[in-house]
Structure formats: C-alpha cells, structure tokens
Automatic annotation (TrEMBL):
InterPro entries: MmeI_Mtase, N4_N6_ade-DNA_methylase, SAM-dependent_MTases_sf. Its EC number is 2.1.1.72. GO terms for biological process: methylation. This is site-specific DNA-methyltransferase (adenine-specific).
Length: 149
C-alpha cells in the first residue's frame, strides 16, 4: 500500500548494472572532443567531433560528467554508477603509470591497487547527484554512498 502511494519501485541489481554499463559505460567509451572549434561534448553524434579511445580519457575529462538520478530512492542506480566510476579511475591510473599517480592510488599488500579515500571522495562529490521526495530514502542513499568511500 505504501509503495503504491509513494510510487516506490525497487529495480533489481542486474537491471541497474545493465543500465549503468549501457549509459555511463558508453559515455566513457564514446567521449568526444570538438575538432573544428567549439567546445568538446559527450555526444557522439556531433558532426564536428571524433571518437576518442577510452584509454585516452583522463580522470580530468571524466570529471566533467555529472550523473543525476532525479528519483534516487535508496540509491541503487547511484551506487552502481559510483562503483563504475571508481573502477574506471583506478584502472586508468594503473594503466597510465601508477607511480606517477601516488596521490590518487596506492598498492595494497597483495599488489592490488586501490584509490585513496581522498580520490573516492572527490569522485563522489564531483560526479554523483540524486534527489527524491522521500527524505528517508535520501538519507539511506547518502549513507550507502559514504560507506563506499
């Protein structure tokens, strides 16, 4: 009854992951730069743009991406998108001279690379946004995102 009244719908994790892969993932893979004047943008259908290889996208370029869930509920989409961005950043730093990016990543005992807490926080504050009419759901989302940091 409460779900119906509030328009609450819980999206299964496999659907959320599919949506993130095919939205955020594609934006990161198809980042475009203007070639004949004008400003760069994230639209691959711009006739004045060229597709840039995924590995050439720096975290600075990715920082221009804003992800908004206008009805975030408990935050499953935002959590998945945030995880995707964290993995993207970590992989980029590791593939592009990890020693040079020691302020952004560190190596654990097993040799595995991790983003620093400061970098995770920066990505969260810069890229992830959500709103909802249910203030309790927003609090759940905020807590869940903070636990990922």
């Amino acid at each position: 009854e409460v779900k119906k009244a509030g328009g609450i719908y819980y999206t299964p994790a496999y659907i959320v992951d599919y949506i993130v892969k095919n939205t955020v993932g594609r934006l990161l893979e198809c980042h475009c730069e203007a070639t004949e004047g004008g400003r760069g943008n994230l639209k691959s259908n711009n006739r004045k743009s060229k597709i840039v290889n995924r590995k050439s996208q720096t975290p600075k370029q990715v920082s221009n991406l804003r992800i908004l869930d206008p009805a975030c509920g408990s935050g499953s989409f935002l959590l998945s998108a945030y995880t995707y961005l964290l993995n993207y950043h970590r992989d980029w730093y590791v593939e592009n001279n990890p020693e040079k990016h020691r302020k952004k990543i560190y190596q654990g005992r097993g040799g595995q690379w991790f983003l620093t807490i400061a970098e995770k926080k920066q990505i969260l504050l810069n890229n992830i946004f959500g709103v909802d009419i249910d203030s309790q759901a927003v609090e759940v989302t905020k807590l869940s995102l903070l636990l990922k940091v």
